[in-house]
Design brief:
3-stranded mixed beta sheet; 18% strand; 14 strands; UDP-galactose 4-epimerase, domain 1; 2 domains; binds uridine-diphosphate-N-acetylglucosamine; Rossmann fold; 7-stranded parallel beta sheet; alpha/beta
């Protein structure tokens, strides 16, 4: 299949691209490089430096390259940031996605896998969270993603767009080639490993939650399992549109459990402080992943913290400066 990956220079996009190439698909990556990294793009991929808000160029590209389907991951995704700068989030995530949807409609490329987020649920009504549970985002980030899920629903009704919206829980881990390099880094696992590597303290954001050890519980999913779900979703688009949670389910892991695993894997101590809760952080976020397991046969292969933290540590040791200074 000829697939265009928007945001293919990002953390998850680079791994989706890696798996598409490994199975023999041909891939065109488009990325604005605002948060993505040029050096994460593999040499056997055609890269086009493009902001998806340039709909005319995008449409030409879809035509010229004979693109059959799109995996759309280009977005900005920091919850706290989105509360401070909603305009930026609506510009990138809503205006950008609408520009892409219009280009797809004009070019008659009607297959789309979309990166959505657990942030569409806001404070969950119950855990594990099911796809049909209320969606009441508590941040502009979550609102922009939900708005685009709704837009895709209506594009399906009117224009026959077949889409899969994948609501990610907490992506983690790395492959040999690709790892996590956000600037600034806000996510727990890379922050813990950076704290170990550079001997600076890690702050636990609150240890007074009603959880098994007082710290926040999250549903971590290995980036390879996440990427595998994209390929399955892509292949199932002919059967119709769908929305899926993408987490491992189960009990999840607390912040302290992540710290313990990191201590064992690295064999090094972690300088720690306990600070106040981070605004907007729910106590527990766990997916019900029954639907994606049942309908797409998805089954995570790397559910353990050893696999997730271990692969992230290996990547960090091999790339102590991440993807470097270029972009
Ligand atoms: C964040 C986003 C979420 C997004 C996901 C993937 C927020 C509030 N949520 O999830 O919408 O889909 O990333 O991009 O930004 N923690 C610490 N100390 C730290 C960092 C984190 O204690 O230095 C704790 C947090 O309070 C939380 C857990 O670790 O309990 C995980 O945090 P993080 O990795 O930032 O992910 P989320 O906030 O769950």
């Amino acid at each position: 299949m000829r697939v265009l990956v928007s945001g293919g220079a990002g953390y998850i996009g680079s791994v989706v691209t890696e798996l598409l190439l490994a199975r023999g698909d041909s891939v065109v990556v488009v990325d604005s490089l605002i948060t993505g990294h040029r050096s994460s793009i593999q040499p056997n991929v055609e890269f086009v430096h493009l902001d998806i808000r340039d709909g005319e160029r995008l449409e030409r590209l879809l035509h010229d390259r004979g693109i059959e389907a799109v995996v759309h991951m280009a977005a900005i995704s920091l919850v706290g940031d989105s509360v401070r700068e909603p305009g930026l989030y609506y510009q990138n995530n809503v205006v950008g996605t609408l520009s892409l949807l219009e280009a797809l409609r004009r070019a008659q490329v009607l297959k789309l896998v979309f990166s959505s987020t657990a942030a569409v649920y806001g404070e969950p009504a119950r855990v594990p969270i099911r796809e049909e549970d209320p969606t009441l985002p508590t941040s502009p980030y979550g609102s922009t993603k939900l708005a685009m899920e709704q837009a895709m629903h209506w594009y399906d009704r009117a224009y026959g767009l077949r889409y899969a919206a994948l609501r990610y829980f907490n992506a983690a881990g790395a492959t040999v080639l690709h790892g996590e390099d956000h600037r600034p880094e806000t996510h727990l696992i890379p922050r813990v490993l950076q704290a170990i590597l550079h001997s600076h303290p890690l702050t636990i954001f609150g240890d007074d939650y009603p959880t098994r050890d007082g710290t926040g519980v999250r549903d971590y999913v290995h980036v390879l399992d996440l990427a595998d779900a994209h390929l399955r979703a892509l292949d199932a688009l002919d059967r119709g549109s769908a929305v899926y949670n993408l987490g491992c389910g189960g009990e999840g892991f607390t912040v302290r459990e992540v710290l313990d695993a990191a201590r064992v894997i690295t064999g090094r101590p972690i300088p720690l402080t306990v600070g106040p809760r981070r605004a907007g952080d729910p106590a527990v976020l766990i997916a019900s992943s029954d639907k994606i397991r049942r309908e797409l046969g998805w089954k995570p292969q790397y559910e353990s913290l050893e696999a997730m933290v271990g692969s992230a540590w290996s990547w960090m040791l091999a790339h102590p400066h991440g993807y470097g200074t270029e972009s």
